[in-house]
Write the structure tokens for this entry.
Amino acid sequence: ALERTLSIIKPDAVAKNVIGEIYTRFERAGFKIVEAKMIQLDDELAGGFYAEHKERPFYKSLVEFMTSGPVVVSVLEGEGAVLKHRELMGATNPAEAATGTLRADYAVSIDNNAVHGSDSLESAAREIAYFFGE
Ligand code: CMP
């Protein structure tokens, strides 16, 4: 089915000047980029986005990292977009990410892992509304 998913190009990837390369991968994979903005997250916006991780030990460093520089937030549309985007990204931990995935190529650690993508249709709807409204 035609789906939408939320993509975030994280501060490490923005700082590395690979926004264009990542967008090229999205476009080559057949995604349409239907919404996009570059923003500087603050503690409230990043903390709210990752509210489900609030009790996890990495929460504080996650919010610090995500507010350390601008991010590019996009909505990608395509057939089976949620799973397809997760496959393009590779595993959360780049050490476990398959060759040729975004995280294998651009991430350095599980904390600085270059990109975020919605993990289900339900979180995609919630995350898209969080950044772009209903
Ligand atoms: P992301 O998909 O943006 O969602 C939460 C982020 O927390 C994740 O990517 C990682 O960058 C970061 N993180 C750090 N440690 C962990 C961990 N042990 N498990 C999951 N995510 C982690």
